[in-house]
Amino acid sequence: MRLVGRVAEAAFVGPYAHLAVEIPGWKGAQSGQFAMIQAAESRCFLARPFSVSDDETHIETTPGTHHAARVSFLVDEVGRGSGELAALRVDDRVHVLGPLGRGFAAAGAVAPAARRTAACPAAGVGRGGAGRLVIVAGGAGIAPLPLLLREIESRLIRSGVLVLAGFRSSREAQALCILDDGLERLRRCRIPSEVGITTEDGSFGFAGMVTDLLDRDLQPDDTVLVCGPSAMCEAVWKVCRRHGVRRAWFSLETLMACGVGSCHGCVTRVADGTLTRVCRRGPVMAGEEAFGAEEETT
């Protein structure tokens, strides 16, 4: 069912528009899920898919008391539809269909977030194993990370979190500010966390590609979660195979027209040679499922 939301906050973080939308009837999302969004006064026929960046629907401030459904999105303006969304202001209306697709929890990458309070939970269940959780994002692929950090916080993953984010320039890297609250919550919960940043032009952080940092720091017992352009995802998977990492999940980016599997506009070929609808089978898939299990040699 298509919902109508009201823009509660609108601001730019670097080149990206960050929208917080109050959506009556929203059921709550997992990290990695997406929504089809369209400005209410749009001149475009189709909505556009955007990852759910954050979702405060189920956060309790006091027992039994919840915030209004407020959902955040990060909009990269690449055409008319996304341009209309980037131009929205507070109190503008948007049409929303979602949450849609299979997120990181449903794909088995991270345990589903439990109901949590404003304070750090007293107990939780990690994902098991001694390795870190390594999160790799490229450009606007940073969008799902705030909600993912909420889920990590709620599960108390004591083995630590390493966030590696790659951008083209320091201007794009300004989007890192959307992670500030989530990283601070991890610190309050005493969950070890580190952030590594790369820019292709060398204007901020490490000069190079995010895969350069990953190749330097990855350990065989790490679990890797990835969101970014297709070429970056494939490059990350090669690094994972080279280091013997088998636990890796990828949020795939592709064009979508409907988001529910009807139009077949997001069909892509996966590792077993079959064609699949990313909106239904994904967007989150295991690396072996998406790219294959062949060992990468140096």
Mean pLDDT: 88
**Class of the largest domain, according to the CATH hierarchy?**
Alpha Beta
Give the helix/strand class.
alpha/beta
The second-level CATH architecture of the largest domain is 3-Layer(aba) Sandwich
Radius of gyration: 18 Å
Shape: globular
Strand order, biggest sheet? Answer: 4-3-9-1-2-8-5
The strand count comes to 18
Q: What attributes characterize this protein structure?
A:
298 residues; alpha/beta; Elongation Factor Tu (Ef-tu), domain 3; Rossmann fold; 7-stranded mixed sheet; 8 helices
Q: What's the SSE blueprint?
A:
Elements: E1 3-13, E2 16-22, E3 34-39, E4 48-51, E5 54-55, E6 60-62, E7 65-66, E8 70-75, H1 80-86, E9 93-100, E10 133-138, H2 145-155, E11 161-167, H3 170-173, H4 180-188, E12 193-199, E13 206-207, H5 210-217, E14 223-227, H6 230-242, E15 248-251, E16 267-269, E17 275-277, H7 278-281, E18 284-286, H8 287-291
Parallel strand pairs: 10-11, 10-14, 11-12, 12-13, 14-15
Antiparallel strand pairs: 1-2, 1-9, 2-8, 3-4, 3-9, 5-8, 6-7, 15-18, 16-17
Description:
The protein folds into two domains: 98 residues, Translation factors (Elongation Factor Tu (Ef-tu), domain 3, Beta Barrel); 159 residues, Rossmann fold (3-Layer(aba) Sandwich). The protein is of the alpha/beta class and 298 residues long. The strands form four sheets. A seven-stranded antiparallel beta sheet has the order 4-3-9-1-2-8-5. The chain has a seven-stranded mixed beta sheet with strand order 13-12-11-10-14-15-18, with helices on both faces. It is built from eight helices and 18 strands. Helix 2 runs parallel beside helix 4. About 5% of the residues have low confidence.
